[in-house]
Design goal:
Chains A, B, C: It catalyses: 5-(2-hydroxyethyl)-4-methylthiazole + ATP = 4-methyl-5-(2-phosphooxyethyl)-thiazole + ADP + H(+). The structure is a homotrimer of 258-residue chains. Chain A is an alpha/beta fold. Chain A has ten helices and nine strands. Chains in contact: A-B, A-C, B-C. At the A-B interface, helix 5 and helix 10 of A face helix 2, strand 2, helix 3 and helix 10 of B.
Chain lengths: 258, 258, 258
């Protein structure tokens, strides 16, 4: 799947937060996709018709940007392009809670969050407070399955071991590094990479999501040994992603039943 | 104090500029805090009540963001949470001069700036023009002391040797590296780290400020020898911060009298 | 010219996109200039009168920012300060197409783009779609020359070998690295560096543009051998720029006739 994505070099419209923009663009370029950070309401919808996929992340939301996100998601739907939702800390404020409901109503093909975000989205009590998870992935698996079944989206819960499900199929993805939560915007960049795989494999968003997670798991595991801390891990991860051998991905993935 | 901050892992709401957001978040994660970049007027005040401390930096100010900053500072005050002001280049335009007066009126617990910024804030003629200081820290010490006495804030002037005072106590912090002014957003990230220490030691903002400065002094000194230039210094500094031994901090601090 | 720019350490007002801000600021600091990212309509014009040069990049455009760009360009013109235009993906949406026409009417001294951007600006059919070029520099040379002649600006087309012309003089700049298009914001940072050289050599914007391109060509070639991928290339490039020997620049430049 990695070779197919690299060969397609899909144009991915990333509406992501200010913290993540640079790192996410570098992650997509390293992986072989073509990122475009286009979010303004004046053009987000028009651009979504040109792009091969869309990703929407509410990390640094504002009213203007929400308008751009909604316009882009509607345009993606109309044009039959897949789109991915990353509901960052959606439980933290009323503004985020309302925004995420509007976005969910536009039926994202993939939803990615940490355990606290996915649990709160499924209506389960969570320990989330800021942008970091207060719950384990395992605690969120049942909530993720219900969320996938009720929304029709592929749902990915990321953490030490990732969990992904479309409501009937499920997988756990291993690998990665304990340094990943110490580097900001890794999860946001992963959401963007899911957009790249969704563009390349639109007929199978479960496989697209698993592929993006496996890339992160493999690149994270490869970057860690030579890293002296989160600062060096960040760029070593980008190097590992650019050098990633497609054959390394399958080893990260454990197919399970739900 | 470093161990106390790491153990608390405080949630720090950082309203900082577009240039600094990614680096500041990585600095806080490396140091052991949990950063959240939340600034929109739609939610900044609500979030400030959840967070353990707030930092406000006017580097890339706009009318909307100023509204978010003021709402967050008011909410932090009401909730008894400490907040830190970083008046970036506040002397450069009328818009900034007015904004900083509104923010000062909300009584930040800590103010951090370079020599030109602190001198201008104390009403002393300075040589500042853009975001880089045109004056030395030593030239700004008297102005910093007066500013601390008139505002009740702890005032930190950062440069080759940092100066910090609450109007009666003062210290100089040594260490750091000549490469630090060659890396953008180091000062902005330091302001955010002061927020993390203020959250952990709210009863002693002078000590919180000194602790953050000592972390930067020690990590900067440790990162420099292996750095080949500002590019490698930036990530080596993050690695050094993550590996920092609390015992290394005291050596950076020189207690002085004002 | 590099020594002259470093000695002047010009204050460059960079209105650039959210993806590029941090990297562009670090590139300017490494090269020896003093960047200031000031874009809000509330102050962009006022600041442009203080700064030594202005650069405008429409990468993440919005209505507010366009207002700031236009105010800054007008102020730069009135104050006799040079300004540089980077029309990122201006062909992608109606909003961008209209914005770039308004900016062109304010007569930038330098225009930098990839081949697709420059061809589209000259009214030639191009293969551009997102932010990456779909055409080669060589295909864009004639369009660049016409654009320079019709606008009076120095026009630079960047790619594997760069082309720059003022309509009567022209040069190609060699060097660089195949990793450069794999790192986001390299072109945006280059536009900002052109602003730094334009501030230092306002009487010869052709030479200023060639100098900035030669810095990128030399630093890119020096950074590549030790880089393990785009992640390590990004910071090695900054280190190389900081260490750049002015004597290395001339070797990158091939004077040609148009």
């Amino acid at each position: 799947m990695l070779e197919r994505m690299r060969h397609a070099s899909p144009l991915v419209q990333c509406i992501t937060n200010f913290v993540a923009m640079n790192y996410a663009a570098n992650v997509l370029l390293a992986a072989g996709a073509s990122p475009a950070m286009v979010h303004a309401p004046e053009e987000a919808g028009e651009f979504a018709r040109l792009a091969d996929a869309l990703t929407v992340n509410i990390g640094t939301l504002s009213t203007d940007w929400l308008e751009g996100m909604l316009a882009a998601a509607r345009a993606a739907n109309e044009a039959g392009k897949p789109w991915v939702l990353d509901p960052v800390a959606h439980f933290a404020t009323g503004f985020r809670r309302r925004a995420v409901q509007q976005l969910l109503a536009l039926q994202p093909g993939i939803i990615r969050g940490n355990a606290s975000e996915i649990m709160a989205l499924a209506g389960v009590a969570s320990a989330g407070r800021g942008v970091d998870a207060g719950d384990s992935v395992q605690q969120a698996e049942a909530a993720a399955t219900r969320l996938a079944q009720s929304t029709g989206a592929v749902v990915a819960v990321t953490g030490a071991v990732d969990f992904v499900t479309d409501g009937s199929n499920a997988a756990r993805i291993h690998g990665g590094s304990a340094l990943m939560p110490r580097v900001t915007a890794m999860g946001c960049a992963l959401t963007c990479l899911m957009g790249a795989f969704a563009a390349a494999i639109p007929e199978n968003l479960f496989l697209a999501t698993v592929s993006a997670l496996a890339c992160f798991g493999a690149a994270g595991a490869q970057a860690e040994p030579a890293a002296d801390g989160p600062g060096s891990f960040a760029w070593r991860f980008v190097d590992a992603l650019a050098a990633l051998d497609a054959a390394a991905l399958a080893a990260q993935v454990e197919q399970i039943s739900v």
